Amino acid sequence: MKKKILLLLALVISFSLVAFGCGGSKTKVEVKTPEQAAKMEGDPVQNLAIKEKEWLSRLDAVHSEISKSYTAWQQGKATKEDFLNQLKKSKDTVRGLIKEYDLHMDVNLFPESAKNEAIYKDGLAYGKKIRKTVNDFIFMATEGILDAQTNKLKQLNDDQIKDLYQNYMVEKYNEYKAKLQPALDKANKK
């Protein structure tokens, strides 16, 4: 009797699998290229403001990590190597943001006339500058600067790194962010 029930159950399961399929999904997944994913419709200035807000948020997180690491180094809670390692970790994120911006500008038409608008030239243009500033600082602090006499990269000493940090990661970063943020706020009100 048990064998007949098991045989009947096996036949019902087999029939169900044949009749309804083996659970395979028939949903098509559309895979977009990076260019397709970056394409935005509508006002190019508004679209750039949306992306700049996202990029600034991510850059602020990187800036915060670098700042914490720098402070720990200055207070003797971390070594210079720890600080430089944090910069090396941050480098990929910053370069990724730069590549995202480049891709956005490549696939989304941004008319020259829009570059003359106050919201762009007095605000949104500083998004590119702030990312470049952080990228330049990371490069100079980790790789060095070009020695004009030897034409090779020369490592910076601690005082030079501290001066660069003050100039790039404090002064320029805050200046550019102070110009970018009002443009983002204004664009979001539209």
Mean pLDDT: 88
Number of DSSP E strands: 2
Order of helices and strands: HHHHHHEEH
Count of separate DSSP helical elements: 7
Compute the separation of the termini in Å: 76 Å
The percentage helix is: over 70%
Q: Domains counted in the coordinates: how many?
A: 1
Q: Could you list the spans in which at least 5 consecutive residues all have pLDDT below 50? A: none
Strand order of the largest sheet: 1-2
Biggest β-sheet description: 2 strands, antiparallel
Instruction: Report the portion of residues in β strands.
Output: under 5%
Q: State the shape.
A: extended
- Write down the Rg: 27 Å
By secondary-structure content and strand pairing, the structural class works out as: mainly alpha
How would you describe the overall organization of this protein?
With 190 residues, the chain is mainly α. It has one domain. The chain has seven helices and two strands, in the order ααααααββα. Helix 6 (118-143) runs antiparallel to helix 7. It is extended. 21% of the residues are buried. The mean pLDDT is 88. This is Lipoprotein. It comes from Desulfotomaculum nigrificans (strain DSM 14880 / VKM B-2319 / CO-1-SRB). Residues 1-21 form the signal peptide. Keywords: Signal.
Can I get a quick summary?
Residues 1-21 form the signal peptide. By secondary structure, the protein is an all-alpha fold.
Give the topology:
Elements: H1 2-20, H2 34-38, H3 44-74, H4 80-107, H5 112-115, H6 118-143, E1 145-146, E2 153-154, H7 158-189
Antiparallel strand pairs: 1-2
Helix pairs in contact: 3-4, 3-6, 3-7, 4-6, 6-7
Organism: Desulfotomaculum nigrificans (strain DSM 14880 / VKM B-2319 / CO-1-SRB)
Protein name: Lipoprotein
Signal peptide: 1-21
